[in-house]
Amino acid sequence: MTSWIPRLPLPVPLLTAAVVAGLLAGCDSDDASEPTQVPSSSGRPLVDAKCVHVEHAGRELGVTVPAGFTVATPPASSAEIRETYRVNLLSLAERPEDGRTLPTAMLAVYGYGPGEREGQNALELSVLNFKQATGGSSRGEPISATPTTVAGLPGSAGTDTDPMALDYNSTDAADSRLRWWTLSPDDGLFIVTLATTTPDLDEQYAAEIPAGLRPGGC
User: Fold this and answer.
1) The overall pTM is greater than 0.85
2) Which DSSP letter does residue 13 get?
3) What is the dihedral sign for C-alpha 39, 42, 47, 52?
4) Could you tell me the end-to-end alpha-carbon distance of the chain, in angstroms, rounded to an integer?
5) Burial of 154 by CB count in 10 Å (0-12 exposed, 13-18 middle, 19+ buried)?
6) Domain boundaries, given as residue ranges, for the chain
7) How far apart are CA 68 and CA 123, in angstroms?
8) Which of 39, 108, 146, 164 is the most buried (most CB within 10 A)?
9) What is the per-residue pLDDT across 200-216, written as a single tens digit (0 to 9) for each?
10) Which residue intervals of the chain are DSSP H helices?
């Protein structure tokens, strides 16, 4: 088992006001695409959802982002994160809510190709970076995932709870739920991560997000 990696300091640009503003205003050219409806595993459609195309090292993935999320592909801080932590943050989506500084849900996609991070090492560092992006705590617990099928491909899925993720400036009694999925198209690796602040949001997106992944792109 890979040893646990100590929490690293959060790269400032990921949570600065400028980046948040950029996310609110900076959806890429996918904004002009037609709304997409994709059946979820629970049988409910993702009404007015949008397929966001991500690509890394020639590997492509379509990620169906639910309505109400702002999207940055890639995020403004991705180059600094890659240089500092050697993780490839390809896309970041957030669900804002009036009256809250932080979003109520966050979705991030990481990707790796030949010669880059792989397997457990890629999973641990990507999820750790995501936890930092949400303002989550590091409790020294290893990050794990159970083998499963994701979007028709061999992959894995894991989950955790965190008392501070997306809640560090408006804490409540409920822990936020974090989830992650891995899938490996054409010897590449994509890691899709999700954080939500309420059980209702977790129940909804935990079914919709993996059901809306499209190997090969949108």
Assistant:
1) no
2) G
3) negative
4) 35
5) exposed
6) 68-115+122-133+141-207
7) 27
8) 108
9) 999 999 999 999 999 99
10) 17-25, 78-85, 119-133, 199-211
